[in-house]
Specification:
mainly alpha; 82% helix; 0% strand; elongated
């Protein structure tokens, strides 16, 4: 997911996307703990996507309050 794609979404869409990514992150952590995780790179990708969404949500909050 690119930052331009994230910026094009509304805050509600971002919240929904963030919730889905956090659920996926939980499932990946669970798979890792049980030794069933096959795609280890996906953990890093999810973590960065979550950070990207949170950053852009904060930017939108700051510009809305300014």
């Amino acid at each position: 997911m690119k930052a331009t794609e994230v910026r094009a979404k509304t805050v509600d869409e971002l919240r929904t996307e963030l919730e889905g990514l956090k659920k996926e992150q939980f499932n990946l952590r669970f798979q890792k703990a049980t030794g069933q995780l096959e795609n280890t790179a996906r953990v890093r990708q999810i973590r960065r996507d979550i950070a990207r969404i949170q950053t852009i949500m904060r930017e939108k909050r700051v510009t809305a309050n300014a």
